[in-house]
Amino acid sequence: MTAIGFVTRTIDGGFSGELKLLPICTHIDIVPNRDKSGDTPPDFRIFTEGLEVGSGRILCGDGRATDYVSLSLAAPGLGGRKLYANLGRAVGLGGERGFFLVWNPVD
Questions:
Q1: Terminal CA-to-CA distance of the chain, rounded, Å?
Q2: Which domain of life is it from (predicted)?
């Protein structure tokens, strides 16, 4: 399991923290999509330095008792490819509000 960042839950239900890849280290904000209507739009929008770079969806996986957030990021600095990650509880860091961004490579 490769952690590529760390975020903490914000009071508005979003997340705020850092995305850390070898060539990239930037602050990100994962904010609830307040304009969502229906099932198609994402549950979260991801921003860095005022630019939208991705989205997140609340999913329930097979055999999981709780929901989790799946992220998709795309930006020129990522080489034209999408980066996928899930938010995973960071036990011992950030209290109950701490989450790692866990890289989810897709073939």
A1: 16
A2: Bacteria
Distance CA 78, CA 64 (A): 30
- Which SS3 state, helix, strand or coil, does residue 40 take? coil
Assess whether pLDDT exceeds 70 at residue 1. Answer: no
pLDDT > 90? residue 79: no
Question: Model pTM greater than 0.85?
Answer: no
Name beta bridge partners: 52. Answer: 47
- In angstroms and rounded to an integer, the radius of gyration of the C-alpha atoms of the chain is 13
The answer to whether the CB of 28 falls within 8 A of the CB of 7 is: yes
pLDDT at 26 over 80: yes
